[in-house]
């Protein structure tokens, strides 16, 4: 066990918005340990290796573990539950409803209240816990008023089964509607040096209303490490192998732009991953970044990035160049 990494995690813990809890700046994203289960995941990993990695993250001081049923069709939640069962009271469990699936593997996205309740109860079972610290509605649903599933969550919050409620990938309309039912204490959305849309409305709204913000996609699925290999072959269980949103042309363009801006790191001791991590953490409305490491080395390097002093003189030029991805 590395005392250096433990020290970094402890020193970088921060208040979690309105929640009485200090969260590690780096939180554990469960999609990375969903293995061959299918759904939204990032390649094969054995149960033994997954559990060892989750436990290693805990031993280093990471205290928030985020998952969702769609990660491995339940496998991620099951592995987190097995790994941390004996320290349940010392960790913060996060899960979500709204992305369900048919037994054939077809994904169904819905916020129908019956589905919300079913998914919540299944997550409790899979994670081997009587309560969830934070429960999200995973995506907006144009066919279901956000207040309907929130009424379900409010009922379970009153029972103590859910302690805090959040919205993922949300919008201002749903955030305003939610006030009529239950307070939203956390928002989780994609945010990184390429994907900056939340800066326009969501992040200011969170800051103004004392709502914690968690970012997913911090490293843009590996591209913002600066080490992405365009020749990489993906496991069948890696969603990047066939997902419609993982377009070869987009990936190539992003890698080109990252390579183009690496020149700004010359003469520094920084690596590109450091920029990606601190771009997010430098935003005063952001609380914690999610990342799904696949092994202990990846976890350690992420923690090392968080612990660095990133004095970078070329933020403006770098971000302006990366904006070319949307051009």
Q: Can you walk through the features of this model?
A:
The protein has 327 residues and is α/β, with parallel strands linked by helices. Helix 7 links the parallel strand 10 (186-190) and strand 11 (212-216). It contains 11 helices and 12 strands. It has helices at 3-11, 47-59, 75-84, 113-126, 147-158, 172-178, 202-208, 248-261, 272-281, 296-306, 315-322; strands spanning 14-16, 19-23, 26-29, 64-66, 92-97, 99-101, 107-109, 134-137, 165-168, 186-190, 212-216, 288-291. Helix 8 (248-261) runs antiparallel to helix 11 (315-322). The termini are far apart. The protein has one domain (3-244, 274-312): TIM Barrel, CATH 3.20.20.
| Beta-strand percentage range | 5-15%
The biggest sheet amounts to:
8 strands, parallel, barrel
Q: Segments where pLDDT lies below 50 for 5+ residues?
A: none
Named CATH architecture: Alpha-Beta Barrel
Q: Specify the structural class.
A: alpha/beta
CATH topology: TIM Barrel
**What's the oligomerization state?**
single chain
What labels describe this entry?
327 residues; alpha/beta; eight-stranded parallel barrel; two-stranded antiparallel sheet; 12 strands; 15% strand
Per-chain topology:
Blueprint: H1 3-11, E1 14-16, E2 19-23, E3 26-29, H2 47-59, E4 64-66, H3 75-84, E5 92-97, E6 99-101, E7 107-109, H4 113-126, E8 134-137, H5 147-158, E9 165-168, H6 172-178, E10 186-190, H7 202-208, E11 212-216, H8 248-261, H9 272-281, E12 288-291, H10 296-306, H11 315-322
Parallel strand pairs: 3-4, 3-12, 4-5, 5-8, 8-9, 9-10, 10-11, 11-12
Antiparallel strand pairs: 1-2, 6-7
Helix pairs in contact: 2-3, 4-5, 8-11
């Amino acid at each position: 066990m590395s005392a250096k990494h433990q020290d970094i995690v402890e020193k970088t813990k921060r208040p979690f918005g309105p929640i009485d809890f200090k969260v590690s700046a780096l939180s554990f994203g469960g999609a990375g340990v969903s293995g061959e289960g299918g759904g939204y995941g990032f390649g094969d990993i054995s149960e033994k290796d997954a559990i060892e990695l989750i436990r290693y993250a805990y031993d280093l001081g990471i205290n928030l573990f985020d998952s969702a049923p769609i990660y491995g069709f339940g496998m991620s939640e099951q592995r987190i539950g097995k790994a941390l069962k004996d320290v349940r009271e010392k960790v913060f469990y996060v899960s979500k409803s709204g992305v369900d699936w048919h037994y054939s593997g077809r994904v169904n996205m819905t916020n129908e209240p019956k589905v919300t309740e079913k998914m919540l109860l299944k997550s409790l079972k899979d994670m081997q816990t009587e309560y969830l610290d934070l429960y999200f509605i995973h995506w907006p649903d144009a066919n279901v008023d956000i207040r309907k599933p929130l009424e379900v969550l409010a009922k379970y919050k009153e029972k103590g089964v859910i302690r805090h409620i959040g919205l993922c990938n949300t919008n201002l309309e749903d955030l305003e509607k939610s006030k009529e039912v239950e307070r939203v204490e956390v928002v989780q959305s994609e945010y990184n040096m390429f994907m900056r849309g939340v800066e326009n409305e969501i992040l200011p709204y969170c800051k103004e209303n004392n709502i914690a913000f968690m970012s997913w996609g911090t490293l843009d699925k590996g591209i913002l490490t600066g080490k992405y290999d365009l020749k990489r072959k993906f496991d069948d269980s890696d969603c990047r192998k066939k997902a419609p949103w993982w377009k070869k042309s987009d990936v190539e363009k992003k890698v080109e732009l990252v390579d183009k801006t690496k020149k700004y790191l010359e003469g520094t001791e920084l690596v590109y991953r450091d920029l990606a991590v601190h771009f997010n953490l430098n935003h005063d409305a952001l609380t914690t970044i999610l990342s799904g490491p696949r092994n202990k080395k990846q976890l350690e390097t992420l923690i090392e990035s968080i612990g660095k002093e990133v004095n970078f003189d070329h933020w403006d030029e770098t971000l302006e160049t990366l904006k070319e991805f949307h051009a």
